[in-house]
Amino acid sequence: MQPTLPSRREFLKQGSGVIIGALVFSSGPIALLAPSKVWALELSSLDEATGKSLLKFARHLYPHDTMEDAVYAMVVKALDKDAADGNVKKLLVEGVAALDHAAGGDWIGKSPDRQLVAVKALDGTPFFAKVRGTCVVSLYDNPLAYAHFGYEGSSWEKGGYLHRGFNDLTWLPHPPADASPRPVHAGA
Amino acid sequence: MATYETSDESVVVVIGSGAGGGTLANELCQKGVNVVLLEAGKRQSTATYVNDEWASFGQLAWTDKRTTSGTWRVARDFPNLPAWTCKTVGGTTTHWAGASLRIQRHEFKALTTYGRIEGANLLDWPLTYEELAPYYDKAEDKLGVTRTHDIAGLPGNNNFKVFYNGAKKLGYRNVHTGRMAINSKPRKGRLVCMQIGFCFQGCKSGAKWSTLYADIPEAEATGRLDLRPESFVTRIEHDGAGKVSGVVYFDKDGKEQRQKARVVCVACNSIETARLLLNSQSSQHPNGLANSSGQVGRNYQRHMTGSVYGIFDKPVHMWRGTTMAGIVTDESANNPKRGFTGGYEMETLSLGLPFMAAFLNPGAWGREFTSAMDGYANMAGMWLVGEDMPQETNRVTLHPTEKDRFGMPIPNVHFDDHPNDVAMRAHAYRQGKTIYQAAGAKRTILTPPYPSTHNLGTARMAATARDGVCNKWGQTFDVANLFVSDGSVFTTGGSENPTLTIVTLAIRQADYIADQLSKRTL
Q1: How many Cβ atoms are within 10 Å of A20's Cβ, its own excluded?
Q2: Which among A150, A155, A166 is the nearest to B51, CB-wise?
Q3: Is residue A15 scored above 70 in pLDDT?
Q4: Are the C-beta atoms of B143 and B124 separated by less than 8 Å?
């Protein structure tokens, strides 16, 4: 294929997609954090359709049924950033095309089961490896994911857990003092 | 803080500021020796440490490119990250968990105790437990190790509670919150543990011993230490008489420097120590400096490791509090009836959510993985650490083609498990799993070894120059004024976390070097 220079309009269309979503679980931990139930992710390298397919692909790779799309959008955000590199962008765009091909066209419009078959068909490809590797880092390394899983993150600014439940588990007996001395603040 | 000329031939140059180098530098300064301490990384502080796993990894970890080979799974999952060590002032004492155990008497006599084992390059240490005991005592006092020197144990966290209850149900006898270089009360200018839960990310309360804020400031206060961060040593040079004369390094501006030295001590952690010696080859030392034995880089040990996580019906919040304050020592004896030689420790461990995702089952995807992650808040964790067999073929070599930014060959780390390591891991996994089942776990997960945190043996001590690189003082057989001062000198690994022994050997080595300097034999 001959390379052609895009028109200004086409050039703008190539990047700057936007994915807009809404929180599903209005009373979940993420809803407590979110300023609004509607969220939007601006893309600078990928278009909206590619972004949406990547988000769905990430859901198939790391399915947490009760986790909001807003968290999976973190993966798309990271991939979009990497796609500033033309080679990565090509890998992602062609990967989504390969998904469509494996699904017999319009992968994202197919049933979840058929989508998953196409996902599995791509296991072992560089596209799959790129998205999976990005997922396993960015999906679990953000405040929304922390809230979803109940992880409390940084603690030093709150004085750690010495007075905030480091030993508050009550469903098993307390070990004796020779195995586990009382903390100094308890006046042991 | 002192400043020495690069032309000053009277200084002792120590390369690396971690458990070995940082301790040695301080001990020498206390004895009136002038020391130049070269550290590849930047200087952080308890104020700049972050409670964020990936960000902290970027701040502290040694991420220069390395390659891997062999059948160990790390080579597949983390081909360019064989080890999880640090490049920062304080070295890996910023990252270590604080577990401070003495190597046991019989473990110093591995060959005598275990006998010959096929494929294993076993040897007795050229020193005994009795020789080291007074130095272990000094090291425990320096580090403030709990359950020694009348220092109380740490209070157990939730993760320990689960571990303790399961272990006791199994009948284990020695279960407690460990011997930890983490203050259970304020001591020696360091604060009490606040149960922050980020021991691996640099302790922000300073309760955990690190050379960064313990030994290095003490050394600076003597006025004899010239600490140079961001100084990457690429070669050790020697004179015609066969003694080392100085080192070549690149400073923080990328400028090549040449520091003269009376004595050079290498403490770069086992991979870089071996690499530096190999990269310092010359016509007199064609196979690498101090490598007439051919043992430099060989016998690389990383401990038999693995982790077990249990998922329970109720919350554990294992990330709260001290990461590794919990131990079962019952399995650390040598009891070949279990189907393997040597022993292992079981120690509590937790990872934050980001690193749990990265290390639970590297490369995995799909519902088996995510359903385990869904149980994260109800998870308890332990680490298994045991003696692995030294093998000549497990080794650090120089990459034939790839070079770093200074033009020096990067290291390749080759590792295959010995059948004894495999048998020990299988036993340890089974016991760990049974502990959590006894505590009521509804699911247990066996996690493969992480990139190596314990890197040992690549310049081992031996009784004779044929069998090893160093004598019992860490002095190289080939070059009298060249010392190795880190875990590279371990003849065998024992089943214990190595830092306490590294510190112990460094204190002892400082005595020896100072004595030899005063006698003018160095």
Answers
A1: 11
A2: A155
A3: no
A4: no
